[in-house]
Amino acid sequence: MNRMKLCIFNSLPFHYEMFAHVLDYCKNKNLQIDIYTNKDNNHGWLNMYEKEYNVIAWYPISFFNPDAYDYIFLLTDDDTGFNPFWNSMSKVIVTEHDGKRELFVNAYCKHQTRHFKLRMPPSNPDTWITPVWDNRFFKKYDKLTVISIGNVSNQLDLRKLFSNFSNIQFILVDRDIDCSDSSDMVQKYNKLDASLLIEYAAKSHYILFWPTTEFSMAHKEHSTSGSFPLGFSVGTQILVPETFLKPLDLKGFIGIPEDRAIFLEKPVSYEEFNEQREELLKRRNRVFDGIFDTQIIPV
Predict the structure, then answer these.
(1) Pick from 101, 175, 199, 244: most CB atoms within 10 A?
(2) 3-state SS class at 145
C-alpha cells in the first residue's frame, strides 16, 4: 500500500492560525505533512508550530509540486496563489471561509468554517469544521480578565459594555493598535507573538468579540472570527452580542445585550463549554477521517 503524502498550501501573508487544526489532526494520526507557505507577517505562528508539532521545514511556494502529493489542503478558498495548480483540483481539500462566496470548482472536497445556513442552497451540514485544535489549558488569571483580539480592538468602548469596568483586566491585541495609552487596567499589544497570544487567551476568563466594522458584522451569519476557534481551542468562553447567539448555534458563546452594560463575573462552570469543545474536536476528526482513503497508510 502507498504511504499518504499530505501538504498545506498558503501563499497569503496571513491565516497562519488555520494551520493549527490540520497539524493537530495529523499529529494525533501520526501523519506526515509538508507545508508550502508565505512567511511574511506570521507573528510567531510558524515558530509555535515548530515547537508544538515538530514541523522542521517551511517550503517556499516556488518549490510546490502538486503531483508529489495525494491530498493538498488549501486552507483559504480565495488564495489566488493556487490558481496555477487548479489542474490538480481532484486532490485538493478546500476550506471555505465565506457563506456568500462559493468556489465552483471540482475539488476533491470542500468544508466550511461553520454551517453556512443562508447559502442557497445551504451548505452540507455534514462538512463544516470549526478549525479547533487541542491546545493545552492554562490556569486562569486571579483577576477577572477579558481579552479582545483583532476586530479593531482600539475602537471598543469597554465602559459601555461592562458596568463593573473598573474591576476587570482587559487585554487588547491587534495588528495595528495604538499601544501608547496602555494602562494597568487596559493592556494593548500590537502584533503580539502567537505563543503569547495563545497563553494570554488561555489564561483569560473570556474572549470578547464585539463587531465594530461591516466586515466583523458578517461573522454573525456568513463567516467566522478567528477568536471563535481560538476560544474553543484554549478553553476560554467567548462574549458576543446577544443577536449572534442563534446564528452561531454553539454552546460556549455568551451573549451581551446591545442596549445596556452588563455586570461581568467569572464563569461559574466550564462543563457545557468543554462538552461543546469536545464535540467540535470530534466533528473535525470525523470529517477529516471521512476524507482520506482508508487504504492509504500513514508514514
Answers:
(1) 244
(2) strand
